[in-house]
Amino acid sequence: MPVAQTNEEQTVEDVKYDAAGAKASLEKDKEGNQMLYVEWDENADPATRKVTCSFAATRSEVLRPELKESGTIPEDMDEYLKSSKMVVTDGNMKKLADEITKDKNTVLEKSRAIYDWVIANMNRDESVIGCGIGDVEKLLVTKGGKCTDINSVFIGLCRAAGIPAREMFGVRMNDDDITKNQHCWSQFYLPGTGWVNADPADVLKAALKNNWDKDSKETKDLQEYFWGSMDAQRVELSRGRDLVLAPAQAGEPLNNFGYPYAEVDDKPIDYYEASNFVYTISFAKK
Questions:
Q1: What is the phi-psi region of residue 232: left when phi exceeds 0, alpha when psi lies from -120 to 50, beta otherwise?
Q2: Which of 147, 148, 150, 145 lies closest to 125 in space, CA to CA?
Q3: Which candidate, 195, 175, 176, places its Cα nearest to that of 185?
Q4: CB of 226 within 8 A of CB of 183?
Q5: Could you give the CA distance from residue 122 to residue 120 in angstroms, rounded to a whole number?
Q6: pTM of the full predicted structure?
Q7: In this predicted model, what pLDDT tens digit does every residue of 39-55 receive, in sequence order?
Q8: 115 closest CA partner among 59, 54, 188, 206
Q9: Quick check: helix, strand or coil at residue 78?
Q10: ω into residue 46 within 30 of 0, thus cis?
């Protein structure tokens, strides 16, 4: 299961786990994501195959920094410019990115044009399971999805335009039971400033939930807020796509690691199937 850790926007302390006698350890994959690995042998009583993990997470609201652009994009940003299985950067994505940014000259102008395009042209689709899978080629056709979908389009277009971008997967800390409160958000790299937050998905979610028109003041205010700012009611669990866990899973690389992952006899279990894979995520303020 993904386990939060301290980074530039959150502090994580007091990580504890109890695997009821099973083999268990905290590990990190090559991307630096922290996870709890638990293994039961074939003779373990199914009733004992339970594990708990807890941690204390502190986040503060992130306010948009002064967006200064200077210098060039560092050479070590290749990881944040490449395609993944779901987020491709060539073909139609490249063509669209070029169209959106054709009159823009700077990284800041291009990234803002992409952000505004995503909000103007995408919509939140409540029929999508979970957070969506972020298959950008299909999303350019359907124009609808949830947070992973919408932010994947933003990331893919940024990368296709030569702007480093990355996604964060986590969960909202806004209720007692947050089992279904997973969320994905994004950042782009602005030379001279560094990584800048962006969350077009939350703009579109609020517009749908509140029945706001996209041109309404409420939507436009959120559009400005989530361009560089970020609320404190979320904790990041992992980053990246096409992930190989530690130890490596038998199944395919994970599209993302925002949910617990399990295998039985080397076969993946669907984490959306509550009858076969039961878990809960709880939150309490200190």
A1: alpha
A2: 145
A3: 195
A4: no
A5: 6
A6: 0.96
A7: 999 888 888 889 999 99
A8: 188
A9: helix
A10: no
